Amino acid sequence: MALQYDPMRSWIFTDVVKEEYRHKLLYWHMLHVADSIAQFAPYVSKYSFYQAMPVPPEGERFGTVKFHLCEHYWNINPFTEEMGTKAYCEYMPVECLKWQGTIPDDDAIDSTKNLSGDEGRSTGGEEGTRPFVFAFLPLSWEQDLKGKERTVMDGPNYRWHFVIRYPDGVTEEEGDRWLFEEVLPEFCRAEEVTRILTSKIRQDVNGCGYSRAVEMWFDGPEEWYRVCVEKMSGLPKPSWAQQDKFPFLKPHFHISSIFTPDIPYSDNMTQYRGIIPMR
Question: Which of 29, 120, 242, 266 is geometrically suited to a Cys-Cys bond with 115, CB 3.0 to 4.6 A?
Answer without folding.
Answer: 120
